Amino acid sequence: MRILISHFVNMPQEYKLVLKYADQPGYTPDIECYLRHGGYEPLKKALAMQPKTSPDGKTQSPQEQIRQEVMTSGLRGRGGAGFSCGLKWSFVDRKSGKPIYLICNADESEPGTFKDRQIIYKDPHQLIEGMIISCFANDAHLAYIYIRGEMPDGAKLLNKALAETRTKNFLGKNVLGSGYNLEIYVHRGAGAYICGEETGLIESLEGKRPYPRIKPPYFPAVLGLWMCPTIVNNVETLCNVKHIVAMGGAEFAKLGTPNNTGTRIVSLSGHVKRPGYYEIETGKVTIGQLINDPAFGGGLRDGRKLKAVIPGGSSAKVFKAGEKFKLKRKSPDGQLVEQEVDMLDLPYDFDSLIAAGSMSGSSAIIVMDDSTDIVEALANIAEFYAHESCGQCTPCREGSLWMSKALHRLTHGEGRASDADYLVKIADNIPGGRTICAFGEACSWPVQSFVAKFKDEFIAKGATDEARHAKENPAPPERHELATTH
Ligand SMILES: Cc1cc2nc3c(=O)[nH]c(=O)nc-3n(C[C@H](O)[C@H](O)[C@H](O)COP(=O)(O)O)c2cc1C
Ligand code: SF4
What we know:
binds flavin mononucleotide, binds iron/sulfur cluster, 4-stranded parallel β-sheet, alpha/beta
């Protein structure tokens, strides 16, 4: 009995904040259903806020108070980099005299990622409410939802939801009599991964090719859409703003773990019994629990062993089963001590994964069991990146293609034992400030990590091909041999 209780106490569970209603039976994406579930109450709360004077005599406007709450909440961006949302908002140039824009990044193109679309398809008003509050807090009067081209139904749903919002005056002129005006439009992408990169997205929204802009000077918070201050946030990030206003930043910060607050929606795919999306308190569930626990992945397919895990979308560095990491953790007396942690025991949060040399990225875990041909898996990823490079930077344009070609020959019987080193040489020469955007890193990290951790498999494949070629095509006899046979 005691064993059962202690097992229950430690049982990892889903924690539904953003996805609280989305999958409930009978929950529909229309505004009436959203209103019945308390929808738009946080917006009303935000619009009703009054200026607040602190004991030092400083007065904070309602907008400043919301921005402060977001800072207090510790919310980090859910789009990939995990950058502080409050800090990003604090960089917005509010003195330029130009309009401030907000863009919701709904491109969701990172392979393995399928979380934002759950919100868009099942609970679009949650996103819209998060956006309206975020726009109000940042004095933005025009916002866009940039949605991936391959999600036409998502665009339709959002447009319908926006129309409903206008009829209730949550959007448009003089929102709920507050004097605040806002319009939000949906813009469909045309199906390029690079449109998810915020400055490529902005170029695309302006009607141009999605060529990412160089930073500096083109930090969106200063020089974004139409060269005006612009906030770009992910779908899930913006939804969280609604919850921060509803519960307060300090309460939100109690969810998750220090510096990794709130919840995260994890897309779990690959060789698990129960692939799907799972919302967890950030850092309160380990990678191993996400893969094996019956509440989540439910374990590997029968009779299979774990081989590798990509922890944060295809661009994150791969983990090998059995890998150990040295992490600094707080002991019960508050001291920082170094501990050896197995890959499966890594808490699923931003900081632990970075400390282990990878990242949680777009929170997409791809599980590979021992049936996986690791060279094939990397070839698949590399082909994607070679196809999606925008081509502006030579190291990325050429390097991604060369890597893909080398992997293609390795997976088509034309490999060489030296291909492993060749791949790493190319991958090492793409990132590190040589490219305009982080795609350079995104295409190199898989190659660097797959080859470093599974080098034997790459060499073995290349060597087998070389040996077979040598047998099938024996070297021609040398010249003097020809002479003596005559
Ligand atoms: C190549 C590339 C693709 C990206 N794709 C996406 C994407 O599909 N969705 C997304 O939210 N962020 C994506 N990002 C990150 C965005 O540039 C940006 O950091 C993010 O939208 C900011 O939102 P957040 O702070 O709320 O995370 C991508 C970045 C790169 C470099
Ligand atoms: S790094 Fe690649 S994707 Fe990014 S701007 Fe350069 S060529 Fe384009």
